[in-house]
Amino acid sequence: MKKLKRFIVFVVIFVFVLGVGMSLTDETSNENQTEKIVKAVESVPVKKVVKTESEKRVEKIRGQFSPYDGSHYALKRLVRDNCKNPKSFKHVNTSYADNGDYLTVQMAYRATNSFNAVVPGIVTVKVDLNGNIFDVISQD
Fold first, then answer.
1. 118 belongs to a structural domain
2. Residue 80 phi, psi (nearest 5)
3. Is 103 exposed, middle or buried (0-12, 13-18, 19+ CB in 10 A)?
4. Looking at the 3D structure of the chain, how many domains does it have?
5. Domain annotation covers residue 32
6. What pTM was estimated for this model as a whole?
């Protein structure tokens, strides 16, 4: 019985030592593989993306509009802040036209009036390329 226990202990220790040795071998091989991957990635040529003026312009214009609902940030803030009840303001849709030096932006919205009736509204403004409103064309 004692011999069996000694044999089992010996086998357990042997397996443990063998496992530790194997894990050390795996770590060094993993490090070698990692180094090879890093060298391969570094050897790949990287193209520098140069944006044209028209791409920069489109990016600048798109930055003025919310990707969530398409509203123009400055126009939405201006209309909401000037409503009778700013909490009732709901954006419906926004469209724009690029006129070279400026954009014409039109926004449809809903808000409550003094009698708590929900009324639709449309506002059209001129906006410079930096997103600043400089002229209100119409407001319904």
1. yes
2. -60, -40
3. buried
4. 1
5. no
6. 0.64
Asked if residue 38 is part of any domain, the answer here is: no
Flag whether 83 is in a domain: yes
Closest CA to 101 of 120, 74, 129, 66: 129
Structure tokens at 103: 């954009």
The per-residue pLDDT for 71 is 96
DSSP the chain: -HHHHHHHHHHHHHHHHHHHHHHHHHHHHHHHHHHHHHHHHHHS--PPP---HHHHHHHHHHTTB-TTT--BHHHHHHHHHTSSSGGG-EEEEEEEEE-SSEEEEEEEEEEE-TTS-EEEEEEEEEEETTS-EEEEEEE-
pLDDT (tens digit, 9 = 90+) per residue, 51-106? 888 899 999 999 999 999 999 999 999 999 999 999 999 999 999 999 999 999 99
Q: What domain range includes position 108?
A: 53-139
Tokens of 20: 């530790």
